[in-house]
Amino acid sequence: MSENNEHVKCLIIGSGPAGYTAAVYAARAGLKPVLYTGPEMGGQLMITTDVENYPGYPDGIMGPQMMEDFRKQAERFGTDIRMEMITSVDFGAEVHTVWTEGGTELKANTVIIATGASAKWLGLDSEKRLTNKGVSACAVCDGFFFKGLDVAVVGGGDTAAEEATYLAKLCPKVHMLVRRDEMRASKIMQERVKNTENIIVHWNTSTDEILGEEEVEAMRVVNNKTGEKTEIPVKGFFVAIGHKPNTGIFKDFLDMDDSGYLITKADSTKTNVGGVFASGDAQDKHYRQAVTAAGTGCMAALEAERYLAEKGLA
After folding, report:
1. Is residue 141 annotated as part of the catalytic site, yes or no?
2. Catalytic (active site) residue 142
3. Do the bridges between strand 135-136 and strand 236-239 make them parallel or antiparallel, or are there none, so unpaired?
4. What stretches of the chain show up as alpha helix (H) in DSSP?
5. pTM of model > 0.90
6. In Å, what is the CA distance from 9 to each residue of 57, 219, 263, 296, 310?
7. Of 218, 239, 260, at which residue does a domain stop?
8. How confident is the model at residue 111 (pLDDT cuts 50, 70, 90)?
9. Number of domains comprising the chain
10. Which of 138, 150, 281, 298 is catalytic?
């Protein structure tokens, strides 16, 4: 076959914990997986500093170093890792077709999707500058580093309510910024926020600026009704306005929910298309942890191997 028209048994799209774990399992099973990293090799962990909640790293590890370890392990067993993006797919036939940004066409008997999800941000320059210096999009990941310090959570949905109640166990004060005069969170989550004494809800409030040079020191907020601006000292600033799964290229073929998360069959990574499996944050809107993503990457590879065996291709 020409260089621009390949056929592979197992194609993995994405290179976070789910993609690399799928690659380790698929490679060890002799499936000769080809993995396309996508635009951000290593996924969201590349913008994470200390990871202290992944088993096997007793002293913690930097996110980028952890992803480098995952990559080396996948390569050790023979995974073909390519730093390129898949830009379109056709899952309409039994053998699936994908195209890369460079114009390469690949046919694949199985496809494991591990494209992840990206946190939504406010879009402030200070937010970008202070990411990992007090600004975070994951309280479960980073809350521990702010034990005993005052923090803020931006958002009015279930995620924001969950993050605020989680942080309230660690921090003396949690300032919750809700841009309207009501929350979108479910009734039970609103009750939890209301019944947690050290969560201070600021209604009709938006972030004007995050203050601090080397780390977060305070935030300037604005009242959306009066226009009044106030500075509040905080050391942590958690953005909880949602995540967007990176699944747009699959919308014509795969079932997804209203937010774009891929729908998989119960206790499985199988999608509605035979031979296509979804893992990690592209299909998980509840946990969004490296360890759960890795677990579903393992599941996807095992299911891809079984699928190929049933077809006599493994």
Report:
1. yes
2. yes
3. parallel
4. 17-28, 63-76, 125-129, 139-142, 158-168, 187-194, 290-310
5. no
6. 33, 51, 23, 19, 13
7. 239
8. very high
9. 2
10. 138
86 and 194 both lie in a single domain = no
Burial level of 205, CB count in 10 A (0-12/13-18/19+)? buried
As a 3-state breakdown, the chain gives helix, strand, coil percent values, each rounded to 5, of 30, 30, 45
Q: Which of 50, 90, 125, 141 is catalytic?
A: 141
Residue type (1 letter), 95:
V
Domain that holds residue 9: 5-118+243-310
Catalytic entry in 10, 50, 69, 142: 142
Q: Render pLDDT for 158-215 as a digit per residue (tens, 0 to 9).
A: 889 999 999 999 999 999 999 999 999 999 999 999 999 999 999 999 999 999 999 9
In this prediction, residue 4 carries a pLDDT of: 59
Quick check: is 298 catalytic? Answer: no
Give the end of a domain, one of 183, 215, 239.
239
The per-residue pLDDT for range 60-94, each reduced to its tens digit, is 999 899 999 999 999 999 999 999 999 999 999 99
Examine the pLDDT at 2 and tell me if it is beyond 70. Answer: no
d(CA 52, CA 169): 18
